[in-house]
Amino acid sequence: MLRLAGARVNPRNNGPHRATEIYAITLKKIADGSEVKVTLPHRRTFNVRFSPDGSHLSFQNRRNDRIELWVADTATGRAKLISGTDRLNATTGDPCDWLRA
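RESULT FIELD:
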């Protein structure tokens, strides 16, 4: 752990030393009560954010040597790694945000 300007950083993956991790995501439709389970890569997920239209959600996955950005389809629950984002610098919070189209 490195202590930099009040932040505690894991130097192996450029992420926070400690973060609340999510181990499962289940989306429930209010209209009919049906549920969709989101497929998570390694159950070390954090910084979950819905897209402005609610059709996708993004999240980061913590690995021992990197932080990855994933996007999931809220209708199917299928998630995929966003190509070229397998080395995010997440030392001071969420490095990603949705933009309106």
